Amino acid sequence: MPKIKLSGITVDFPFQPYECQEAYMSKVIECLQKKVNGILESPTGTGKTLCLLCSTLAWREHFKDAISARKISQRMNGVELFPERPMSSWGNAATDSDIPTYYTDVPKIIYASRTHSQLTQVINELKNTVYRPKICVLGSREQLCINPEVKQQESNHMQIYMCRTKVMTRTCHFYNNVEEKSTEKELVESIMDIEDLVKNGNKHRACPYYLSRSLKQQADIIFMPYNYLLDSKSRRAHNLDLKGTVVILDEAHNVEKLCEESSSFDLTPYDLASAMDALNVVLEEQAKVVQQNEINAEFNMELASSGLNMELEDIAKIKQILLQLESAIDAVELPPNGNGVTKEGSYIFDLFAKAQITFQTKSSLLESLEQILQFLSGHTRIFMNTSGLHKLLDIIQTVFNIDPPEGTTAFVPRQLVSRYYKVHIHLDNGNQKKKQRTDLWNSSSTKKQGKTLSYWCFSPGYSMHELVRQGVRTIILTSGTLSPLSSFTMEMQIPFPVCLENPHVIDKHQLWVGILPKGPDGTELTSNYEKRFSEDYLSSLGKTVGNLVRVVPHGLLVFFPSYPVMDKSLEYWRERDFAKRIEEAKPMFVEPRNKGSFSEVIDAYYDKVASPKSNGAAFLAVCRGKASEGLDFADINGRGVIITGLPFPPCKDPRIILKMQFLDEMRRSGAGAQVMWG
Predict the structure, then answer these.
(1) pLDDT of the residue at 577
(2) Does domain 3-78+103-262+466-501 have CATH number 3.40.50.150?
(3) Which residue, among 479, 507, 510, has the nearest Cα to 492 in the 3D structure?
């Protein structure tokens, strides 16, 4: 394999790199050597993942060489061991002051992408290199658990708490085998994606979930979906220590939205009703135990235990807190126009304080909620919807994420949330599942139309600052679509001294991009709300696609703005033989809404395209759906892409309006005025 020297570091690359690939790797190494953040854009198809892996792992090996050189130099008292290769050349991945004493202090690499399917592609690329680091891929219990009893639990939350119970009582033999199996060479040194991890877990009868957590301790590079990294709750759950790590966020064009969503919530009347009903069940169960123990004590019998080490008064106190929170939300006066009311982000602390939820009380409240949820998970005979309690737990962790400095008030967190957040209170819009809701609604104290409390974050900068606070060495954001970089960096709210906008490896004549304003019959192809379901539009679109399937060879992708638009288009085309005309040229495969059957459909599409007897195939999918990102439509699988329309957010949605106002405020304050509206 070719060896390329970049900034003093030798990189092993599987082939002679293109100029843009060398430029990309040089920028990665610059970030790592200078301990600074970078935003690197390189178009899809330029080998970005391979460049990232090779340059980062080459730098890491060089870093280890620097430790070796210093250790040998200290022992040799400055005498050169190999005169033709001075020790000063062994490793310049870091300055002398930056070189740690121990190999265990060499920075770990955290490689995060949006989905596990994307991470599987990255791990497959790693297998094509000469580098063989110790790796680990993190996943959820839902993906990794192999205990049949835990797996059959319908709710993900119930799986979590049942798993914890079995681990604490050591009644899961898969978990009990982890310590012994985690040192086996096949598991420690293999490069495994999430499917390999499950396969090997079954083979060795060891829990893949806890195995991955064990392998994480010794791993050189840890792969994970980036919500594990950016969501503070997930970060704590996976016990991630980020101090001194190199954080790589691949497919980073999704980071902005995920940062905002992981720091936001909507608390509906249904959530509160669900939580209170769950508490009522716990109170009833505990009351039965108390009554039984009064009888047992009278006859000197052994006292019974429910398994929940909480007094009735403490459980009732939590219910009282929920009632107070419900009352505080309902007491907020709304304008008569029904648009809801918006307040500064710090108002959330005032509202929660009315229910005695504060920085001082949060720890004991979270501990009590955890105990109650653990109790309910261990009593499967009690059929109980615990979603409300789980949501309340998450919400308290979200609101009180940043502790005020020791000996101070909550002033610092109030400042931060006022900068990044808004509180919006509005009448419940009734989007909850009515079937689930009926019993709860009738049995809870909330019988009128209640109000929804929304706590919305409008800047990814909040989560980015949190990452920096964890003490990371370097953050690298990379994707094929980050431009304009100026506005993207402004939104992130942390410095990015290193930037790159790479050209493509292909020439312009090799790719055609264009807009078809009209169909073959002269009808305007406009997929706006007013026209997308009109017969003229659907007919003209069907004729257009029917023509293009005959022009584009092999695999063709057709994207629609949403599932309803795709369904309506297909229904119209099938009624009027447009579908038949399309399928005469290429058979159609349609993206299913159900995640479970997606792989079956996409594999059938790949097989049809690859068949020597076929003219290819057309895959109909949805923007922002399962096929729009994370899949590699390489070579003949994707020779053409048709986008029939884009999914625009509803301009009257309160959250969209507030986001636009937030950006306007940033412009007025001078932050990013030139870059966004220059």
Answers:
(1) 87
(2) no
(3) 479
